[in-house]
Design goal:
Strand content: 25-35%
CATH topology: Alpha-Beta Plaits
Structural class: alpha+beta
Helix content: 25-40%
Number of helices: 3
Number of domains: 1
Number of strands: 4
CATH class: Alpha Beta
Order of helices and strands: EHEEHHE
Strand order of the largest sheet: 2-3-1-4
């Protein structure tokens, strides 16, 4: 069974556009990570400045490996100074 993940990334709405290219690059690079089955990034239309990733990983080891990739560090380097709250990563279990 795969692992589904949703992450919310709250950025300063005034500067969120600065991070959008880095987040798009993150999604593109992440799709090539070992065990990545899906990786999409969206801008929220209801909460300005908030980006949401929807991910599916083969297993927890794949997700852990992804978190250590240089493209993840690069995205956090760009988005980090623009954060307007805590990045929340939700691993999802079926109900």
């Amino acid at each position: 069974m795969s692992l589904n993940v949703v992450a919310t990334i709250p950025l300063d709405p005034e500067r969120a556009a600065e991070a959008a290219p880095a987040l798009a690059e993150l999604a593109a690079a992440s799709r090539s990570d070992e065990g990545c089955l899906r990786y999409e990034v969206f801008a929220s239309t209801s909460v300005p400045g908030t980006f949401v990733t929807i991910e599916e990983w083969r297993d927890q080891a794949s997700l852990d490996g992804h978190m250590g990739q240089p493209h993840v560090a690069k995205a956090f380097e760009v988005a980090g100074p623009l954060l307007a709250g805590e990045v929340v990563i939700h691993t999802l279990g079926e109900v």
